[in-house]
UniProtKB/TrEMBL annotation, chains A, B:
HTH hxlR-type domain: residues covered: 27-125
Record's keyword terms, sorted: DNA-binding, Transcription, Transcription regulation
UniProt keyword annotation of Repeat present: no
Record flagged with keyword Amino-acid biosynthesis: no
Residues forming coiled coils: none
The name this protein goes by in its record: Helix-turn-helix transcriptional regulator
InterPro entries (alphabetical): HTH_HxlR (IPR002577), WH-like_DNA-bd_sf (IPR036388), WH_DNA-bd_sf (IPR036390)
Length: 135, 135
DNA sequence: GCCATTGATTACCTGGAGGTAAGTGCATGC
DNA sequence: GCATGCACTTACCTCCAGGTAATCAATGGC
């Protein structure tokens, strides 16, 4: 709770700080949250948490992602230093993706969020049912 | 780490489960992540963490949100049971928003994420600089 | 020769999140 | 009698994340 309050203060502060930038929404916290909110980043991180994977291996395990989005999301993760890309000079060149130390460190706090989500889903669904019934 | 791995497994499982639905993206975990990823939900939760606030009070404290989005986001949070709305029958009717118990419980895991983000920003920026230099 | 696989890139298109601006009904202040 | 504040609602528009599909260059199997 205390940590939460502190975090809230920092969060709001940074957010406001970014708001004063105006030109670009370069709030560092928002920056991270955008990745978490996008459709594929966290899914890929979670798949890579199990160990390094090749491009098409990921593609097969996540059938509903397009090649374009897989490439693009991996690039973004690589750019942010969460994922490392390694090319092997085999006959048909193969590429391996693995989480970096930084990438692995995300799994812990993100895991807490997922745990919260899973625990809270019943309450949320109940609240929604009540809300929708009254409208 | 262990918790993280477990969370990852549950996450991926649920995600896939939702993928099998096909018709609607009703993955419960994605459902929660969408709120966290959207532009205003978490900012409002963080502002309300400090205590109950009135509509226009929030609007003044977050100047760059539109009335439309403030109303809409508050409604969504209310529907999910994260925020409670209380109407006072004063001469110009006033409305107060406060976090529910469920809403407060989000602050803890979300705070971990923010902490991670703040701690990791230097690494991320460095990684970006390196990546951008090599392209 | 034909086709598949590997890891991409590119052009084109759509849906929906979110912004802008105006309007609403009521009450108080000047 | 006009403006202001409160808590919205509505119509309209814009932008971009993400999807679809075609293409690429090299290689090995049939």
């Amino acid at each position: 709770m205390q940590t939460g309050q502190d975090a809230a203060a920092i969060f709001v502060e940074r957010w406001n700080e970014a708001a004063s930038f105006e030109q670009t929404g370069t709030c560092p916290v928002r920056n991270v949250l955008d990745k978490i909110g996008d459709k594929w980043s966290m899914l890929i991180v979670m798949y890579l948490a199990a160990g390094p994977k090749r491009f098409n291996q990921l593609h097969r395990e996540i059938p509903d992602i397009s090649q374009k989005m897989l490439t693009q999301t991996l690039r973004d993760l690589q750019r942010d230093g969460l994922v490392a890309r390694q090319v092997f000079d085999t006959k048909p060149p193969s590429v391996e993706y693995r989480l970096t130390t930084l990438g692995h460190s995300l799994i812990v706090p993100f895991g807490h969020l997922i745990d919260w989500a899973n625990q809270s889903i019943p309450s949320i669904n109940k609240a929604r049912a009540v809300f929708d019934a009254a409208s």
